[in-house]
Fold each of these.
Amino acid sequence: MKMSIVVCGRSLEDFLNEIERFHGFRAPGLVLGGFMVDWAQELIGPNVEADAIVETAYCLPDAVQIFTPCTIGNGWLKVLDWDKFAVTLYDRKQLRGYRVWFDLEKARSVPDLYDWYMRRVAKKDLPLEVLLDAILEAGRYVLSSGAIRVTGHFERKKKGNTQICPECGEAYPATQGATCFACQGKGYYERR
Amino acid sequence: MKMSIVVCGRSLEDFLNEIERFHGFRAPGLVLGGFMVDWAQELIGPNVEADAIVETAYCLPDAVQIFTPCTIGNGWLKVLDWDKFAVTLYDRKQLRGYRVWFDLEKARSVPDLYDWYMRRVAKKDLPLEVLLDAILEAGRYVLSSGAIRVTGHFERKKKGNTQICPECGEAYPATQGATCFACQGKGYYERR
């Protein structure tokens, strides 16, 4: 399929190449997510300093990180692990913005896309290229958007006091207690 | 300061430029984090498919996302919001790897770095360029590393059943209950 479209300010080829470079492959969820970011960017306009919230940890965080200035590490992107395929861009001062979500009802008319999202089809029975073509052809058609005001999860976390853990000698936030989480047995590793 | 070093397989200039492009500016924590990733990559070697865990949401997740194949959206990077400046790269099959952390005791001999990390100095009293030079000069000197076995937080989350929320009509995981989190009042937005 050939199309001359611009997504997130890029040619389709650049759009797909950047996804592959950052994410490792042209993940369907990330291509779909790119269209969602593209629409949210258009709705909020070019002159707004926007923060982002995504409602799933799958794929969508990378669409925001590739195509907007918001990243996990700079604090402008928040990831809610809700497994809802939705993204919000909002003015970080006014707290007004737009939410774009994958609209399953609209996707019913694109069976490959619907079946993929609902995991009704095995990967081997739906080749990646077929699914990607369906997503590229559908674009915004399977999305919906709404104007919203952000009422929570917009706070920048303040760092508290840092102190030295008496057991491991590492710096940790005082709020964790007399020793750090790892020395409290909540760690994810053992020395070898 | 001029140095001819290679960090994360890049010239210092490319290293700093990629940080700026992704993160918005040359954040000190991200430059320090780049040295941490660089060391962890060297320890684990080039032929290992490594997953990553970072122990803070500040800056360090971006170092991993820029300089390794691991991202939030592809599931190879996990972010623990512990405010500890440490990163682990580990073989995703063997669960063996290396943890690298900012060693505050070692950093005592680099007062600008120590004061910055402990937030003992106002930003206006420690220009970014001075701090960056201190970090570039220190490099691994203010870090420590250890061989570890990962004992938790390595599971890939499995998606559960997806169903339609009877209130908003959006897809959500059945485990959330009869309606989705947003319709249960746990959302972060209101329509406007």
Amino acid sequence: MSDNRVLPDGTIRSLCGVSGVRCAGTKEGKFGLALIEAPGESAAVFTRNVAKAAPILLMQERIKRGRLEAILVNSGCANALTGRRGQADAMSMAEIAAEKLSCSPDAVGVASTGVIGRYLDLPRIEKQCSLIAPRLSRSPAAESDTAAAIMTTDTYPKHALVKGEQFSIGGICKGSGMIAPNMGTMLAFLYTDAAIPACDLKDMLSHAVTRSFNQVVVDGDTSTNDVCFLTATGSAGRVDNHEFEKVLLECCTLLAKQIAADGEGASRMIEVIVTNAGTETDAREVAKTIVGSPLVKSAIYGQDPNWGRIIAAAGRAGVSFDPDAISCWIGAGQDRAPVCIAGTMTEDLRAAKQALDAKQVVIELDLQEGEEKATAWGCDLTEEYVVINGKYTT
Amino acid sequence: MSDNRVLPDGTIRSLCGVSGVRCAGTKEGKFGLALIEAPGESAAVFTRNVAKAAPILLMQERIKRGRLEAILVNSGCANALTGRRGQADAMSMAEIAAEKLSCSPDAVGVASTGVIGRYLDLPRIEKQCSLIAPRLSRSPAAESDTAAAIMTTDTYPKHALVKGEQFSIGGICKGSGMIAPNMGTMLAFLYTDAAIPACDLKDMLSHAVTRSFNQVVVDGDTSTNDVCFLTATGSAGRVDNHEFEKVLLECCTLLAKQIAADGEGASRMIEVIVTNAGTETDAREVAKTIVGSPLVKSAIYGQDPNWGRIIAAAGRAGVSFDPDAISCWIGAGQDRAPVCIAGTMTEDLRAAKQALDAKQVVIELDLQEGEEKATAWGCDLTEEYVVINGKYTT
């Protein structure tokens, strides 16, 4: 995968790699605020959790206009399960940004992340917005502030920039816990200079999110606040839709893998590749079920090549296959070690154990049911996940 | 719930509370063997994992006869993902017991639990069976040996005995990790002296298992080896079916709660009661999703009244409800503390935090969608779960 975000001098570029995007961010303790200004055709996908946060409910309506001028994001409070007051607060957030930018509140996207069941601190948001609005700029420093402002339990900011022939797609995201399938995505903000109408953006975004963010599992808990925005500023003109889809998927995948690697308490990233499935959906389900299994995750943390857990997880994915026909490897490429070939177990698991001694562990499972393929990403389960989540609100 | 298993002198009775049942067990390190002799009409429910262990595949066929003479169970090796050799080994297990008991191998139930992807050590099973077959008896000591023989990561043996007007139902089970919904159950062996035909037993067992064992979630991983057997020895004669169903559910629930409380690494048992759901299935799904949420489990371990995670988990259960109408309490009975009433959050969570300082934590969620109700059981998520599962095979 080509990752153009790091320049030779080490500078990270994501948002600032896309013309027409300016941003700024600030953080006080766990309360951050980020403002991204980028007028253009826009689309979004949202969490499928029934208990949707106030900003999600608001944006589901407002995104139908197909155009955003800017997005305001706060961290530290999710504004979820806050009822009517939460709804009013989400609208106030949009108004705060609209006033600074002299645009319509309807054209401001809002998103929140943090503790559920708390009201927004609007005076703080107002104050922080006044601070950062004058600082809006297109620079690596500004995007670094912006990506840091939306972090909660994330341990590093997440950027991606992928270039097509004539255009770029760049974005930032956050996500570390409450990460699971069956969602829109975590908080992700994507920008491109390609000129693409909102209706096409929506379809292409859904396609890419299904195969990237939605294939990440940290703990199986789907957030109330997940959202992924995509805005096309249009300065690069019309582009080939097929090429755009490819570059978009690559950009989303780069971000998704950063979320997986930064899973709460993670010491290792896990990539599960399922091949020769009957359908692509089958392949995705099996890959996600394996990468989300607490027993598989614990075994990888302990560097234990307990491959029976991999097959047991596959077996509960709701997908039909013949356990006596499958093959499974641990490790990548030339160095992959077989643990089971055509249903027959490998007696000597030393090579498999060796393959687990990596920061990125690859598991490959051949279902021998068809020709479809999918990948999912996650992380190991460590004591630290429990520590982080045992005392989050306090 | 009436639990008749503990006598005034502290003696535990389960299997030996049912006439017609004799048992014996032994354990060498992690390799145990249990033999239960109880001729009678029999039924069983099995794991729904696609990757079914060899003894499961064998018993799915043999249980169709509707009658068992005995059951032989080994621990330490699951005989799962072992292909044709595993199938032959499961049949050999049945033959070993049949020879000792002078019955047909077709009438011997077999079950296995332990590491997946290992072959059975048949010479050891033969040797252990020769040791315990002459010791078969109906006594608290024998049932204690039997329940201990089937344990893996369990920290205590699990017994239940519930009496009806004229009959008893007693049983033992094991289960601590790889415990999840969508299964037959863990290993459970139930006996009654009531006279009930196998076809009725099957229906009544399915009904009870759906509402008891299948409502237990430890880690969301469904085993390849789950099975629950029920044998009716018949010496108490015909009984009222309705009463029998009630007593059976009570007996299964007593065992299910013991499994939840003994979840790997658990420090607290969690009971989730969902009320006023649209359908019983909805209530069950929501209860199971909450009790299985890693974030809810971690919060309870940390005594953190982070109720937003409870509602967020409910919201991803695939069940429709209005988040603005729900109420939620932590704690049981008179002492339950509200955290959210009719969609409005409780600002002071001190009482809720206090309610989390218990060995058995109760969470109640009123969905305001209908009149149906269900309960699920689980445990908190501690660092110890990760430690136990990080190095299981080694």
Amino acid sequence: MTTDSTESRVLAAIDERRSRINDALDEELPLQHPERLYEASRYLLQAGGKRLRPTVTLVAGEALADVAPDSTDYRSFPTLNGAEVDLMRAAVALEVIQSFTLIHDDIMDDDDLRRGVPSVHNEYDTSTAILAGDTLYSSAFEIMADTGGEPANALAAMRLLSSTCTKICEGQALDIAFESRSDLLPDEYLEMVELKTAVLYGASAAVPAELLGADEAVVEAMYQYGIESGQAFQIQDDVLDLTVPSETLGKQRGSDLVEDKETLITLHARQQGVDVDGLIEAKSVDEVTEAEIDDAVAALEDAGSIDYAREKAEALAQQGKDRLDVLPDNEARDLLKAIADYLIDRGY
Amino acid sequence: MTTDSTESRVLAAIDERRSRINDALDEELPLQHPERLYEASRYLLQAGGKRLRPTVTLVAGEALADVAPDSTDYRSFPTLNGAEVDLMRAAVALEVIQSFTLIHDDIMDDDDLRRGVPSVHNEYDTSTAILAGDTLYSSAFEIMADTGGEPANALAAMRLLSSTCTKICEGQALDIAFESRSDLLPDEYLEMVELKTAVLYGASAAVPAELLGADEAVVEAMYQYGIESGQAFQIQDDVLDLTVPSETLGKQRGSDLVEDKETLITLHARQQGVDVDGLIEAKSVDEVTEAEIDDAVAALEDAGSIDYAREKAEALAQQGKDRLDVLPDNEARDLLKAIADYLIDRGY
């Protein structure tokens, strides 16, 4: 279990790097001709975001290179064989990919808001949003292509980035397909979460290992750390949707249930014989009452489904942390472990 | 000027390679889980297409390696320093990128048909089409990442592919923006054509130069060959829209004029004082008459605008062909020159 100090430590680590990440985003993705396209491409990136994935990339680099957190110029970062790479470009590329996926997902899901502002297709139009996402997509590869260092390592990072993007598309396709499936299995849900959400954490942790020239076993361990932390994050997100008060969540508690979204919790409950479809009568978050949500959550608690999901998230986060034993024992490694804890125990 | 034998020679060269390109597309982009996503991703590729860009890649490789056309296994193709690369994967990657751009363009332009079949967003739905395009996008990078050979050369090819994709997005953004511009300049139009259409021909010719380890000057010459041939192709396409009978075109002759699409021809005519907006009264291709088109074409001919565009296309094709003088004098080089001729003198 994490403590308040773990959370504040992780948030401090993110804060310390955020302005440099933001500056680098601005440098690597300048507002250029044609202006409207780049304005739309930069719009969501400028609307905010924790920069969690690029932070993982930077801290993973520090853990691998065995340097103290925040001690080293990310633009000329030491590799394991004494060369230098621009680790910041890699971090930026991962955030740019994340932004691309959000823009296209918002079109597909017809979500009006993102990070408290209108989504890109809403602020501009669908064509511009498709094109802004496409521009970010190839820009991320352009940025990643020029980190310097050994070409073989850069090529490996490019290969990992491309396979990661393909998996994210597969995960989004499964997520859409699952909306019309009534016979979903927990393992199918976990596969979807791995592909849609977790692989980008995996890439965020494994790309620095590729660039720094780490052994294949270390690359794989870093990737699995990201995968398992990312899965834990998503499962815990489903738990928090039911257990955190609406005012803290910033949206209606239980909205997944109201909107018939399957999660590991509902899939477990179905297996326990709970009539999940009958838990909520209300057809929208506007008409649901807190009392109705309370009853539904109580039924899911009685079935052990919320504990099941919470324990699954904790087990995955622990697995992820254990992967890091391949790294030197240093402060940055501890910070990566704290990030895994933070992903499941964050205050919302 | 080309002759019938040039055209038939180019078509024969395309025919000779098409089934192998198609087999490789099927191998590198198999129908896999999740099936519906990959079915949608493969749908347009399976609907046909000349495979002109991958043919350019393969023939450019033959010209660079100085081997006889069609004499060498593309899967283990000789580089300039005696190693081997999988040139077919590079060719496939370029066709996959082309297919991605068509799928997303058809969504943006709301085009119902492509290659005689419903466009992907029409056959499936918009979300699936966005995702199918996104899947092809990263798949192309995955395919390009594993051509073998020198990592530095593969990385250079990846870098070229990514900057090419960014430029294609910029070109599409300009094309959309130009629809609401009444003060477009010919140079702006040429820039749009370069970005939207020509750079992918440039990459098709230059990627093999990168992979085979050619000098930077040769890479640049091949790229310019593709750019200039590709621009010539698009300008000639605008000419053919006015000069080829509707039954041969397979669509209404003069449709660009009816739909108020600016081309190099209309932009030249405007500069000559022609009232381009008044040339056609009809508001759609359904109501326009051949006589009205004839009169409009006559006015554009009188202004010298059609000859201007035709000569521009011919000059660009010639420039492109001249770039190939950096290559060894061989049969494949002649074929690349014939392809440039074919692009502007093809029967429709």
